[in-house]
Every structure is written in C-alpha cells, then in structure tokens.
Amino acid sequence: MTAAHFWAPDYPYLYTVYTTLKLGTTAVDVLPTDFGIRAVTWTLADGLLINGRPLYLKGYAPRSTMEWPNVGMAPNWLEDYDLRLMKDSGGNFIRPMHVSPKAADVEAADRVGIIYVVPAGNAEATRRAGHVDQATWS
Known about the structure:
About 15% of the residues lie in helices and about 25% in strands. It is of the alpha/beta class and about 140 residues long. It starts with 14 loop residues before the first strand and ends in a 22-residue tail after the last strand.
C-alpha cells in the first residue's frame, strides 16, 4: 500500500476491506470490515508514540456494558454517541472494566478516534480456580 493514511485519535482514517465468499463465480456473501493503519511504539525516553508523534492518554474506565439509565445495555448506535461525548471532553482513550466489550464498541471507538484497550475476557482473574485460562490458549 503506498501513500497510506495513518489512523490517529485526531485523524481516525479508516479503510474498508471486503471479504467475498463465492460459489463458482457468483458472490454469495460479502462482509465489509473497517480497519485503521497505525504505527505504535513506546520507549522510556519518548513514551507512547502513535505514527511517530507523542500521545498523552486521557480517558475513561467505564463499565464495559456502557449501560444507560432506563435503557440497560446500550444499542449499538448509542455507543457512537457515548464515545463522541468522551471525545468532545478531550478524551482519547478508553479501558472498560473487567470484561471484553461488544465488537460494536471497539468499532465505534475506531470511527471516533479513541484508543480502546480491551481487558481479558475472564473478568481479569487469569489463572483463578474455576476460570478458563485464556493465557494458555493457542
């Protein structure tokens, strides 16, 4: 890819790739997937760099289900609204509590320009008795 646009919190550029399932020469299913290209580095001297530029993380640690009063778990369109509120307040980072979010949450963060760090899917109790040990999955 030449002259790629790199995703960053202040420039959330996304590409779309299409996965096509064909039966012979006939497309029977097409799945669009949005993605951003970014270079992430961290050094003791420079800290976090996104695409070679320093970035200070400012953000939130909400419940991963992002409930709304009288609504419960938010519908997918409301995730965009939540994240835009966070972005408008100066946030560029989100790390939900305890469990993995819905895919729609992470996709909304990419669209809005928020870095989303996803916790382990086992309530962060890695290797605790009675839980699946995801650290050993291969």
